[in-house]
Amino acid sequence: MSSVVLKNLVKSYDGKKNIIDNINLDIADKEFIVLVGSSGCGKSTILRLISGLEEISSGEILIDGKVVNNVHPKDRDIAFVFQSYALYPHMSVYENIAFGLKMRKYDKKTIDEKVREVAKSLNLEELLDRKPRQLSGGQRQRVALGRAIVRNPKVFLMDEPLSNLDTNLRVQMRTEIKRLHNKLKTTFIYVTHDQTEALTMGDRIVILDKGVIQQVDTPEVIYNNPKNKFVAGFIGQINFIDVEVNNGNFKIEDTNFYTDKIINGQVTVAIRAEKMISGNTDVNITPEIVEMTGGDRIIYFTLNGCKCSARIPLDYEFCNKIYLDISDMYFFDKESGERI
User: Fold this and answer.
1) What's the pLDDT band for 199 if we cut at 50, 70, 90?
2) What are the residues whose beta carbons fall under 8 Å from the beta carbon of 294, sequence distance 6 or more?
3) Can you list the domains of the chain with their CATH numbers?
4) What are the DSSP calls for 162-179, one per residue?
5) Distances from the Cα of 89 to the Cαs of 94, 130, 134, 202, 326, in angstroms?
6) Which residues, 6 or more positions from 167, have their beta carbon under 8 angstroms from its beta carbon?
7) What is the tens place of the pLDDT at every residue in 38-67?
């Protein structure tokens, strides 16, 4: 078992504002969970607290049901894969992967067997004698993964491990890490600011803002049923349109809409970019910019004074109209941002 539980977790520096503010999170054994949020939201700090690299201010961290608040990092049986790879430049690939085993006093035969097994699984066999400076970014990242895997830890912590790679290599490594998770069958806690990584990799996603969890759920639920405006805006391409609602009636430009929700006053309506042509009520627009993205086009325009976009397939005949449906709209309180 390699479950991780965070109970009322708080982190502050010098007793000032909480960087992590009363986080409660249960991470199941063998789960791949992704922490996502903008810079400064606290996601990397949570990893450092779990690993023991930073002390918590209050609360508890449990691994396998045991409180580890005062357990030294090396005794938590956790592997940390950093954004910077953190490889030893004077050591070969072989020596980098073997380093943790040597520190734990494994015998040479066992070390050799484990290193070569991991190298084979990561296609590093031909690179074992090279130094990190002789490797590409993707190869270095695989070495960093190999060094973590070889110890067979209870939990893997990964802090934006793909952020230094180019787009094509990131896609390749995303697949590789998911394949690795399926093979190792252990717990992965993965930090990213990239929504695509979050949606494609996580069994569940944790959305963070200013040290507070906004929503925890599967990618499908997060995408289709956001709890508040922040979550809706962080995952996927979405439009926010300010409207005045009177007994459920409101206008987008000159087109009337009605919702059976009991709403009155200033409201923010949200519609995902790919849903802007899925309805049966047409709204006239004036395209401002058109971007080609390969299989589709993104049309930029303004509705009710708010900047919007529509993602439209290339083979769709676009005639300066979008087609909306009330069932595709989310409603948020304009002041609090909470879902109505």
Assistant:
1) very high
2) none
3) 4-224 (3.40.50.300), 238-333 (no CATH)
4) TTTS-HHHHHHHHHHHHH
5) 12, 10, 10, 32, 58
6) none
7) 888 999 999 999 999 999 999 999 999 999
